[in-house]
Amino acid sequence: MPTTIKEVALHAGVSIATVSRVLNNVGPVDVRTRERVRSSARELRYVPNAAGRSLSRRKTEAIGLLLPDLFGEFFSEVIRGSDQTAQLSNYHLVVSSSHNSKKEIHAALNMMRGRVDGVVIMSPHIDAETLKDNLPQSLPVVLLNCDIVSSDFDSLTIDNYNGAHAMTGHLLSHGHTRVAIIKGIERNRDATERLHGYEEALREHGIPLDDTLQAAGDFTESAGYDAARRLLRLPHRPTAIFSSNDSMAIGALSALRDAGIQVPEEMALAGFDDVPMAPYLTPALTSVAVGIHNLGVRAIETALHAVRHQNAHHKQQIVLTTSLSLRESCGCTNPSSIQQLHHASAEEVTTASDPTSKV
Asked: pTM higher than 0.70, yes or no?
């Protein structure tokens, strides 16, 4: 049987309350007594009951992270940034995936109830009603790229529109007039905003929209491969492809290589996200940099801020701006310009009920 706190108290010759104060590092206890209690706990191999400790302190020291998927460099970077930031504050990260299913979103949220002090949610299928039905009002919630406009929750969103607009404009600046796009998932906020940015850039340059240059995709490598193959079969094919994320750009690059198309000489290529492997592809992939790791960092920082203020703080809606990482795949060969843009720090646009509130 595991050792109990009562046995530790008897062994150390102190009260149960004193043992609790020492192990939780709260309340006044003299140095000698503190060391005697810790020595007894080590000798008896006492392990505090995490559930009971959470109930007594009303804190779990854990933050939940709900993502639509756990596969791929994008999500692994979000998790890495989130976990590192949580650990710096002595918190644990509880990660779950919804797989874009409403049923699994409900199950994941119910699993986290009572087990986390706050939750960060990234899902295209979440809505305010689901949150209110499945989570207590006092629980801090941070929305990450969710399609919910509400002052009830903190939120962080990527400036998808301007990122796509800038990248499309850059491809046009290389002299391309037939720029195709590999789109993301239908009715997905990121995909929709990136498509709008692409279309508006074409309009501003006086280039008519061409539906044949808008290839369907779903953010996966295989979708990018298939989309590039379809674009290559067009009677009047494009000379540049803008992919709505890097995974599809990687798939498209493979399709172009299989077809014997030289990148960027015969076909320029650009993606979105700037995943860690992008600079190491051949050719190195031009991409819209969103600071994926920083996205995870900021999400957990925002959640911890809400936890410290018992969710009574003024909620903030933060828009993270993007920059262009220009590399060989779009035809850029000047290392200085690539380095300058790749390391440009993104500014943030923040709105809040209280303009003086800070994360």
From this structure: yes
